[in-house]
Amino acid sequence: DAGVIQSPRHEVTEMGQEVTLRCKPISGHDYLFWYRQTMMRGLELLIYFNNNVPIDDSGMPEDRFSAKMPNASFSTLKIQPSEPRDSAVYFCASTLAGSSYNEQFFGPGTRLTVL
Amino acid sequence: QQQVKQSPQSLIVQKGGIPIINCAYENTAFDYFPWYQQFPGKGPALLIAIRPDVSEKKEGRFTISFNKSAKQFSLHIMDSQPGDSATYFCAAFRDNYGQNFVFGPGTRLSVLP
């Protein structure tokens, strides 16, 4: 398996623009997570899905952020409009419930820079 | 109650040293305690994990020590190598329906040659 796939790997945009981050989880996994990582705040859980249904979005910072999972093999995280403080590395992770230690498999991340 | 406290924030050791990273939790409902390792430019990856019914687990040079009564656990890296330089996250998970879990803030480890 190729692991969790994220695109793009790097994104540079200007304040006010819409940004869409994409994730393909590992085939067969039933949970998908979106995280944001910064030096100041560490690794923050934004939202997670179970069987394509959002379960907990309490970590989503504000209404500018939205996430969807239209099917088991694809999820998006959208920021509209983007702001400089959104600059961070965004990770997607997936797991299969009941697997050993519910191990989460992380993607390589998308480094977002908002100018 | 959902927090995991982790210390130190950063750590520098010489090659061959034994860095120790400590974590503490509040919620006794957590069922297992993994450590994730993250190299620069990569996503975190599971390194080692322990359940609270044992006090120690070893995998190669990595050891988790677990103190259930104190609600603390720690990661020890024996004979540390420059290749161990990474950020280490402790975490606490509940093994029930759903995904109740929390990650610590991370420790940046540098092992000098």
General description of the model:
Chain A has strands at residues 5-7, 10-13, 19-24, 31-38, 42-50, 53-56, 65-71, 74-79, 88-95, 105-106, 110-114. With 115 residues, chain A is mostly beta strands. In chain A, the strands form 2 sheets. In chain A, strands 2, 4, 5, 6, 9, 10 and 11 form a 7-stranded mixed β-sheet that branches. In chain A, strands 1-3-8-7 form a 4-stranded antiparallel β-sheet, with no helix packed on it. Chain B is globular and about 40 Å long. Chain B starts with a strand and ends with a strand. Helices cover 0% and strands 53% of the residues of chain B. Chain B has strands at residues 4-7, 10-14, 20-25, 33-38, 45-50, 56-59, 62-67, 72-77, 86-93, 101-103, 107-112. Chains A and B meet through strand 5, strand 9 and strand 10 of A and strand 5 of B.
Task: Give the mean pLDDT of chain B.
Answer: 93
Uncertain runs of chain A are none
**Level of helix content of chain B?**
under 10%
What percentage of amino acids of chain B are in beta strands? Answer: over 45%
**Which pair of protein chains has the largest interface, and what are the residue counts?**
A-B, 23 and 20 residues
The total of helices of chain A stands at 0
SSE order of chain A, as H and E? EEEEEEEEEEE
Query: Please, how many helices of chain B?
Result: 0
| Ends apart, CA distance between termini of chain A | 36 Å
DSSP strand tally of chain A = 11
Gross geometry of chain B:
globular
Give the termini separation of chain B. 39 Å
Low-confidence stretches of chain B: none
The largest β sheet of chain B comes out as: 6 strands, mixed
State the oligomer.
heterodimer
